[in-house]
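Notebook, p. 212. Picked up where the previous page left off. The plan for this session was modest: take the two constructs that came back from the sequencing core last week, fold each one, and keep the raw output in the notebook itself so nobody has to go hunting through shared drives later. Recording the first one now, exactly as returned: residue sequence, then the structure token string.
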Amino acid sequence: MDDLGTAATQPTDPMPIVLLHGVGLDRTMWDAVRGVLGPGTVALDLPGHGGQPPLRAPQSLANLADDVLARLPGGPVHLVGFSLGALIAQHLARFHPDRVATLTCVSSVCNRTAQEAAAVATRLEAARRDFRGSVAASLQRWFPKGSRVGAEAVTATERALLANDVGSYLHAYAVFARGDREIAPELGRIRVPTLAMTGELDPGSTPAMSRRLAAAVPGARVQIVPGVRHMLPVEDAPAVAAAITAFTEEAMTAERAEALRP
């Protein structure tokens, strides 16, 4: 599959929507969202994921963001990031605002507490000791018994996780584990319209974190999706697509009105 979405609805805004996935996944996690958003939607593999070369050395959030920057479509885009992708998107919005028209952060961590930081560090160490076991634990955390996500989507997520080069995955996960601390001092300098959204039941990228992010970024808003866990784009693609569409259209309408103001 190429990076371009397939036709579903005709967007009113010709500016591309660029989707960045989370650690250990690949661009196919956005397939259902892209199916709703339609043409003009681009999903990219993060460095070390999917069709990109494996990471062979420790990384920083800036390293990963620079790699993504080089592969963005020309001109400004509506940038949407999920989990690790959200941290990368925040970095791009802060340091390359000319390339980011709007910023949507889906299931993003933000300013982890000491307890939250310890929990993600424990998961990283578990992955170092037993990668396949950590994948199983992630699937259980994201799709517990009774989840409304179908078996096909769960299997596709498992397949993407197990396809990782383990060393590369660990380098990327290390950035995810500390990336919120890297970007935290810069959040107040983000000036593009920003939306933070997460699932009501997400135990890792919690509603409290989205509220912290919205409080840290000037003018940002927050949206909590009821009854959903961490894999929001998989579990409720229509809600994510609707939120992206409404937010980007509103932001562009406000920008055009400001440009016409005498």
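Okay, moving on. Second construct, recorded in the same format:
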Amino acid sequence: MPVVRDLRVLLRLRDFRHLLAVRLLSQAADGVYQVALATYVVFSPEKQTSPAAIASAMAVLLLPYSVVGPFAGVLLDRWRRRQVFLYGNLLRAFLACGTAVLVLAAAPDWLFYASALSVTAVNRFVLAGLSASLPRVVDAGRLVTANALSPTAGTLAATAGGALAFLVRLLAADSNAPVVLLGAVLYLCAALASLRLAVGLLGPDHGPDHRHPRLVEALALTARGMAEGLRHLAARREAARALAAMTLMRFCYGALLVMLLMLCRYAWSDRESDGLALLGLAIGVSGGGFFVAALITPWAVARLGTHGWITACAGIAAVLVPALGLPFTVAPALVAAFVLGLVTQSAKICTDTEVQSRVDDAFRGRVFAVYDVLFNVAFVGAAAVSALMLPPDGKSVVLVLFVAVLYTAVALGLMRKGRRFT
């Protein structure tokens, strides 16, 4: 198979392998840490979870990224990306240990959220840097395949980390502290793995007159830098269209995830441990969809193009989400989890490729930071909308149909604009 052959070629590239190792360890740690947060908010025996509580937690943890994200982009275009991976992961390991101490000390919720926010805020720098660095270790002809392998492998690593976290949580007598410490260990491993990359390998490139600005000066340039990045993106319509479509699909994914959390917590289980195990199974099945997306997306893009494949993914979701979701039973929901993993990750691979291919290297950090901000705002918005629509047991016909309409709008919008530009 051509995909398998291209994957073998990519894995023979030393720098690509080293960058991939940093991604896998970083995102595995993210998966562990995210499960620790989710189980603390949703599955703690002493808490009565509601959609509003989940939305509030997501807002606390994700909305500040709308502020952090632009700073991440401006600084990423000035800092050595390899150093971001090293020091960012070391900092997260230290902060995660602090979060574990707060869990053991039964600290107030606001203090736990503040600590968790400090860990996940650094994530904006690391993930944006990983995406911006990929074109530095592979040639343009294999960028689609690299995007199919690298971010998808990272998502699978996060899924595997989450599954391991679920197991540790179930074995640790309902304590989240061992799970958080496991994440800290993985963050430390990611920092050590980054040492195998040369300091200047990943860029960014600067002219001979470039100087590293002081931090205050860099922050003062944030507004101008973001405006430049947005103008740069706006001038590249194909990348902007893909990013807009991916943002709406991310909203849909977030809304359905909140519904799944509530179904696992209340409608499909009587005990917190049973609901937690069921949620872990659903996430694992969705991870299978990510894996299949990595295999078929290069083949599909070769035949349909990136926008054509995003359109097909949105159309598939528009049909299958109501068909599989409206019964509100476990088996169809697990199939839906696989489908959503497949279409969402396929669309993300295409969007990553569009942005990387059409955005200049000097602007990639800023544009991927915008990408990251849109992801988080869409996810928090989805949680807020879900809080208004979902009943206590999570069964909402209105929400399922609303999401299906959004997927349909994405597919029809891309088809119409595709005809306009051809």
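Notes on construct two before I forget. The two ends are 31 Å apart (CA to CA).
Flagging for discussion at group meeting.
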